[in-house]
Write a structure and sequence with these properties.
With 192 residues, the chain is mainly alpha-helical. The chain is built from 6 helices and 2 strands.
Length: 192
């Protein structure tokens, strides 16, 4: 059983790691979606990741639109987070493959959560009279449109109501349940 101070320390460490992991994932998603680089929101994520990524870019350049430096940092940070959680919870086994799989599962989980909340926010904003030119709205639509577009082709609007966000949110949660939880169970199984 964990002591209250250990639980508090673990919580704070997870918050810090998850925040930076989410920042890196969003930066990578903005690159994949060809978001406006000069958008203030894009610049925010670029400035937060640049000090860590730029030195590593000398070794790991961008390859076919994939920023290998950011990807490496993302994987290492996620693995460190998993290892710290295991260490604090007195899991004394150090299994590199298990930590790697759990780290990848964490990255997929965070990515799916980012998409879930971005689509939810974009759907809510579509009900309001928000200006598309607002930097946050522009980024939200830029992030969500590549996922929403195939579903919008299949699911027709009924009485000017777009039901595709509901379907996409359900699909994202199903992917989380089936794929991410399977990865987590595989990683945990390697520890046993």
């Amino acid at each position: 059983m964990m002591q209250p101070l250990n639980s508090a320390a673990l919580f704070l460490l997870q918050v810090v790691f998850n925040l930076y992991i989410i920042i890196i994932i969003i930066r990578m998603l903005l690159q994949f979606s060809n978001a406006n680089y000069h958008n203030p929101v894009s610049q925010f994520f670029v400035k937060l990741t640049k000090p860590v990524a730029n030195p590593l870019r000398r070794i790991l350049p961008v390859y076919k639109d994939v920023d290998l430096a950011l990807l490496a940092i993302l994987i290492v940070l996620s693995m460190i987070q998993v290892w710290i959680v295991m260490w604090v919870k007195s899991f004394l086994t150090f299994h590199v493959l298990a930590i790697f799989i759990l780290g990848i599962a964490n990255i997929f989980d965070q990515t799916l959560n980012i998409y879930f909340y971005a689509i939810l926010a974009a759907a809510i904003l579509s009900w309001l009279n928000t200006a598309y030119s607002h930097p946050v709205v522009e980024i939200l639509y830029c992030l969500t449109e590549p996922i929403m577009r195939p579903f919008r082709r299949i699911i027709p609007t009924i009485a000017n109501i777009d039901f595709s966000p509901i379907v996409v949110l359900i699909v994202l949660k199903l992917v989380t349940i089936i794929f991410v939880h399977s990865l987590q169970n595989l990683g945990i199984g390697l520890l046993m």
